[in-house]
Structures are given as C-alpha cells and as structure tokens.
Amino acid sequence: MNKIIIDGSEFSTSEGSTVLEAALKNNIHIPTLCFHEKIKPHGACRLCLVEIKKGSRTRIVASCAYPAEDGLIIYTESPRVEEIRKHLTELYLAMYPYHPEIKRLAKKYRLISTRFKKVSNYCILCGLCVRYCSEVKGYNAIGFTGRGVDKKVAFIPDSSYFKYCEKCMECVEICPTGVFPSNYGMERIPQLSES
Amino acid sequence: MQAQKEKIIKSPRELNQLKENLQLQFQGKKVISICAGTGCKAYASDEIFSIMESELSGMQKADPEKVKNIVLKKTGCHGFCENGPIITLHPEGTCYIKSRVDDAKEILQKTVDGSIVTRLLYVDENGTPVEKEEDIPFYKYQKRVILENNSKIDPSSIEDYIRLGGYRALAKVLTGMTPEGVIEEIKKSNLRGRGGGGFPAGSKWETTKNASSNPKYVIVNADEGDPGAFMDRSILEGNPHSVLEGLIIAAYAIGSNQGFVYVRQEYPVAVSNLSEAIKQAEEYGFLGQNILNSGFEFNVKIHRGAGAFVSGESSALMSAIEGYVGEPRLKYTHTAVSGLWGKPTNLNNVETYANVPYIINNGADWFLGIGTKGSSGTKIFSLVGKVKNTGLVEVPMGITLRDIIYKIGGGVRGGKNIKVQTGGPSGGILPEQLLDLPVDFDELYKGGSMMGSGGMIVMDETDCMVNIAGYFIKFLADESCGKCVPCREGLRQMTFIYDRITSGEGTVEDLSLLEDLSVLLEGASLCALGGTAHNIVKTTLKYFREEYEAHIYYKTCPAMVCSRLTYYTISEDKCSGCRLCVKSCPVNAISGELKKPHIIDQELCIKCGMCIDVCPEKFNAVVKGTGKTEKTRQFETV
Question: Containing H/E element for B207?
Fold first, then answer.
C-alpha cells in the first residue's frame, strides 16, 4: 500500500495504480476524455494534468499514466494546472464544445465562447475507439492515419476483422463525442466485408 | 571465409601492430583528399575525383616511380562548405577552395611536381593568399576534435581509421577497464548529450546499467531533422567508425549485446557508409562474438527512419524500431529503465558517441579542459544563413555567438541587425544584443533559446521574424504526430494566427492568444516537440515585438518579406518604357506601351519580384514597398 496526498488529504492506494485511478477510487474528480478503465492510458487529451511534488520540485504530469508512488503530493487544481486547463478548454471549445466535461469546464472557467478559429472536426482523436478495438476486442479494425494536423481515425481497409464490426459496434458506444457512426460511415462496413 | 578470419584482431598488441604496419606503408605518401560531402558533391567533386584518378593511372603507366607516393582519397565533409569543393593535401595541409572540374589535372600535376596552385588558395581580407588550412580564419578559430579526421579518412576504409589510432580506445576499455570504470570516466568528463537535451551521458549509462531487467539495448539517434542542420550527417558520412567505436564502448559499459542505429532514410550516403563500416568492423572482429578476445559480444543493426521528425524523440524512436508508428509514449519511467521492448535502453546522439573514444584515449581531465564548467568539450554547429562562410564548425563550448559568426563565419554579407536562430525548431531566435552569450547548454537556455543539436541560422534585417516564426510553427504542425491535443490543436491554431498576422489581418488579441498557447504548449504537451515549440514564439515576441506590432497595427512588414503586405510599383518618372518587366512578368500583370511608363496591376501581381530584378540598374524604376498600395487602400475603404 502506498500513501499519497491529493489536494491535502491522505489516501492509501494499491500498488501499481495510477494517480487518476487513485483519485477516481476516492471520488476526487479529475477531468479526462481519453481514459477508460479497460484500456491502457493514452495521455492524449491532457485534461487530466495535475501538479505533483516530489522533494522540492514540482512537475506537471498526466495523472492517467503517472504511478501513485508512495509519498507523492498531488495538486489537482493548482494555479498552474488551472491556467493550462483553462487554455486547453478554450482549445476544445474550438473543436468539440458539446461534451459534458468540456461544458462543465467552460462554465467553471467562465468561457462563453472561444477566441480560437473553429475547426470543423468533431473527432477529438482521443483514440478510445482505436485502442478499445485493439486492446479489448483484439480486432484492430480501426486505426489512425496521417500525422499531426492531418491525423484521422479510419477503418483499416484490409483488416480481416471487418466481419465482426457489424455485430460489435462497441466503438460507437465508447465514442465520447457520439459522432462516430455519421463521421466514419459505419453503414458501409457490411459491403466492405462482403467483398 | 578463410581470408576474413585472418583479418580478425585478437588483442591490443595485434591492433597496434596493424596500426604500425599501416603507418609504415603510408610513410612518405602525399594525400590529395577531395571532399565528397553533399555541398562539394553538388559542385562535381565526384567528377574531379574520377578525372584525377584516371589521370593518375595514366601517369603511373608512364612513370611509376614519379607518382608512387601520390594517394587520392575521397573523404567526408571538411566543413568549409561555402567554398566547395575543398581539396586538402596531407601532410602539408595545403587547402584549395572552389576547385572546379577544369582544375583537376592542374592540381594533380602540381602536387606531383611539388608546387602549389596559387590561384585556388583562400585569399584573406588583405588580399594575401593563405596556403595552409590551419591558417584560414574559418579553421583557425575552431577546435576540431571530432571533425579533425574527416579530411584524412576515406569513410569506406577501416584501415584509414585504424592508422589514425582508431579502435585504440575500444582495446583500452576491453582489456584494461571495468564497465564501472568506463562509466566513472564518462561521468567525470561531464559529457552532456549533444542531441539537444544536454543530459549527462554518464548518468544515463549508469541508470541503464543498474536497471534490473535484461537484455539491455544501446541506440544511436541519427534522426537529424532540424531545418539547416547537418552535423550528425557529416559525422556519419565522414567518419562512421568513430560513432561505432563509441557505441561499442557504451555497450560494454552498460552490458548490452545489441545496438541499433536509427538513421534517416533521407541520408543515403550516411546509411551506405555506416553499413560498410559495420561490415568492416565485423570483419576485423570489433563487432560480433568475443571482441578482441575479451568474451564481450556485441552486434549492431541499422534501422532506417521513415521520414518523421518526431521520431527523433526517444520514446517515439523506440516505438519506430519496434515496428509501430513513431509516436511518443507516455513515459514516466525513463527509457533507461524501460525503453525498447520495455527493456533498459540507452539512447544517445551521434555526436555524443563520437566523443567517447576521445575521452577514453585522452582522459576525462583533457575533456574537462575544453569548454566551460557546466558544458565541457566541443560542439559542432552547422553555420548557415546570411553568414559569409557557411559550413560545419566545431568550437569549444563557451565561445560566444559573436565569435562564431564574425571570426569563423567571416561576418554577415552587408547585413546589419543580426539575429541568430539556434536549436532548430525547438530553439529560439536571439537578437544582436545577445550575441555575446557564450555557447553553453545553460547560458543559451537562459537567453530563451537552446543548444539543440547544433543548427545555427544567421539572419539579418531582411528576414521577417514573424514570417520565420510562422515557418517553424508550420514545420512543427506538419511534423507533430498529432497524438496530444495541445500540440496538434495548439500548433494548428498557431499556424492560423501566423497566417493572419503575416497577411495583415492580425489583431492585438492574436498576440495574447500566442502567449496563452505558448503557456499551454510548454505545460501540457506530451513530448518535447510540443513542449519546446513555444521557444520560437516566446523569443520572437520578446525580442522582436515591434515587428509583430508593425504587421498588426500598421499592416506593414519591416523586412518586406510577407508577400501579402508588400507591393511593387513602377515610378512614373524613372520608367523609360523598355518593356523588359512587361515581358518577364509571369502573370502579365504589367501593362504599358514602349517608351511610356508601365503600370503594375496590383490585383494580378503575385509579388514574385521578377520586375525589380530585370529593371535595368540605370533606371531603377520598380520600387518595392510595404503596407498597402494606394489602389488597394481605396478598395478597402469603399
């Protein structure tokens, strides 16, 4: 058992657990969009950033991946974290403002609109669908294509697992933005698997 | 197979024997070494070599006695790229610059006769020709340790490397030093990672060595991708064995039996020279089983990069070697503990490894004697941009930027108001008042830039800082892997902002947006690509804010670079109506009759600048301006 301090209160955590898991277990809310208990941390959404203190040094880390080491002091809402999270929320508002977590954060930081240019892509590339398909289902029917600003989620054309897609459809449910089916044309899959 | 076995060296004594034999064979030889680095190759140095080669074989037939001591060598980069092709004569040290194909025969003939071709020598400011390489200011103020042998070694010949004392450090380590002793020596030398991070190499080795799981791996990071940087490339192309030797020593110290070299596919010469070097090292028994009869086994594989800048990041590089997409991973456990396939992995830059044999041979104290207290040794920079002598320079740490630019680089072509970009896309731009900053990992960081892997781009008042910053942000946005939101979306938004500002549509709010995004990128990015992207924005905002303001408030580009904010007009008084510009305009934007002043249609003009180039000097009728022209202003007010 490790002892950690989150926002001033002490908690004990099991060996191998991450900071985010420890916080969730103790009903401390850390916002996140790309975390799922069944799959490995991805660290893409960056909303779960917390400030940790080890000795005299503090650091900003992604709580979804940082191990809850013994004696770790964690601040989930330190001024630095809040500043970063506020800018991040504003960035999300330009991308996908409809997610409940984003709405909540926008309200918290009193962001009515975003100063950034709207990017018309609902997918936030959290990778939940891709990772769920590969890690939980073992299908690897979807993947990322492109790089940087051109990155997209796409069906892997020659995946032999297409035949399962129609029955599974779990990626649709896991998508935090709920736009998966319309965005990626799920209706076309049966055709592909036939050919 | 039989012949190969005979080559294998089993002890330091045999290595020394071989070295002495090679030196003996080489005694009294006159070497003409022709640079076959990329810059010189572009000026047909290959052709010069083949002309000399055929000429020499002709001479051999005619009078073998006369030319028996002449040796031709095709070498790696000598560094003085501006004046290529470079030809150096050893052991005299005579250096010919800007040699052309037509000069090849003359150089060979004169060398055979024992005289020199005076017209090909470097001429200093006073007009006196300088014969020796070491007296040329470009070389004089450098401290060449790693690059020293570049002009003496044929990269495809391990014998050349051995003759100059190569693999001596490896022999010393394998027969006389414990792995701990090697790490102690490297730690003592305070060798810091040359790839940009500046992390002490000795500590990294120690962490990898002490990590509990096995096997352990060692990797050379040769994924050099900074615009305008070619340090690692020149080492790998010119002296691949020095990197290999450093790698083998590191592997011995760490206890690794498998090494990788991650090299860019875009460096074909580096890949082929390195492959050849590995093959030769295997033939001589420096790689493989039971190296120098010590029982130590080590093998190296080359992994060619598929063209991703982000793969230079340690965890992304390891993902790429494993066969996955080169994307950085979340690494709160250091790669020294859990790296390639989850095993302890030591990753260093090409230049870091190239330093290792020298430290072992000369001792840590020698290394500490070069450079500054915090940053010991030398650093190679690729000096490019508006500087007179562009090329590859190796300088002791602690030298000022001013000395590099003025003493070695020969100053700037007619420019005032110098700016220096260091550290590639991760670094920043420093203004003229900071030129006295010493080149040192910590000092450059304090100035807001960083050492990076060694790119140094010199600019002047004709370079628009907003445009340059926008270029680097665009580069990073293209090269970002797109995994984490701050980097992908933040850089995307930054490119929008820079597009707005450089096209005269920026607002005051854009500056605060840039500042906010800088905070976000620095704090929230997953890896160093996004985490250092703010440097270029922050330094330009800090030191060149007036340029941003000129773009935003006055819609002008002081450097007259941003095409949306510049215009060309023809002065009615000066134009004689020669129609030269009318004929040269690629979009037919200029109209006018012969002997009557011409007019540029601003709507059609693409601002290529062709008209200003062709307008005869005696007229100088085409004027470049910044801001908006009278005509466009009218359009806007309507």
Answer: helix B201-210
Are B482 and A149 a contacting pair at CB < 8 A?
Answer: yes
Average pLDDT of chain B is: 89
Predicted confidence (pLDDT) per residue in B149-204, tens digit: 998 999 999 999 999 999 999 999 999 899 999 999 999 999 999 988 889 999 99
Q: What is the reported pTM?
A: 0.90
The DSSP-derived string for A148-177 is: GGG-EEEE-TT-TTHHHHHHH-HHHHH-TT
Kindly indicate the confidence band of residue B447, based on its pLDDT and cuts at 50, 70 and 90.
confident
* Residue B447 in tokens: 């100035």
CA distances B89 to A20, A32, A42, B129, B150, Å, are 65, 65, 57, 16, 13
Chosen for mutation from B309, B332, B334 (greatest number of chain A CBs closer than 10 Å) is B332
- For tokens 């110290």, the residue is B253
Residues B420 and B457 sit within 8 Å (Cβ to Cβ): yes
pLDDT reported for residue B260: 95
Instruction: Note the CATH architecture for domain A2-78.
Output: Roll (3.10)
Confidence bin at B54 (pLDDT 50/70/90): very high
Q: A–B: how many Cβ contacts below 8 A?
A: 104
Percent of chain B scoring above 90 in pLDDT: 55
Q: In this complex, which of A64, A91, A115 lies closest to B489 when CB atoms are compared?
A: A91
Burial B114-145 (b: 16+ CB within 10 A, else e): eebbeebbbeeeeeeebbbbeebbbbebbbbb
Distance (Å) of CA A187 to CA A166, A175, A179: 9, 17, 13
Q: What is the DSSP letter of B102?
A: G
Rounded Cα gap, residues B544 and B547, in angstroms: 6
pLDDT digits (tens, 9 = 90+) for B419-428: 999 988 889 9
Say how far apart CA B618 and CA B632 lie, in whole Å: 29
Amino acid, single-letter form, for residue B186: I
Q: Which of B332, B492, B509 shows the shortest C-beta gap to A115? A: B509
Looking at the complex, does the CB of residue B130 fall below 8 Å from at least one CB of chain A? no
Nearest to B358 by CA among B210, B186, B568: B186
Chain B residue whose CA is closest to A34: B484
Record the tokens describing residue A99, joined without a space. Answer: 């997610």
Residues 504-523 on B with a CB inside 8 Å of A are 509, 513, 516-517, 519-520, 523
**3 state DSSP class of B552:** helix
Q: A65–B330: do the CB atoms touch at under 8 Å?
A: yes
Q: Is B482 on the interface with A (CB under 8 A)?
A: yes
* Structural domains in chain B plus CATH codes: 7-135 (3.40.30.10), 158-368 (3.40.50.11540), 378-459 (3.10.20.600), 465-553 (1.20.1440.230), 563-637 (3.30.70.20)
- At residue A172, the pLDDT reads 81
Query: What confidence score (pLDDT) does residue B453 get?
Result: 84
Q: At what angle do helices B350-362 and B231-238 cross, to 10 degrees?
A: 60
Sign of CA dihedral A159, A44, B540, B196: negative
Q: For position B629, what pLDDT does the model report? A: 54
Three-state SS annotation for B122-183: EECCCCCEECEHHHCHHHHCCCCCCCHHHHCCCCCCHHHHHHCCCCHHHHHHHHHCCHHHHH
- The verdict on B483 touching A (C-beta cutoff 8 Å) is yes
pLDDT range class, residue B635, cuts 50, 70, 90: very low
Do the beta carbons of residue B36 and residue B74 sit within 8 Å?
A: yes
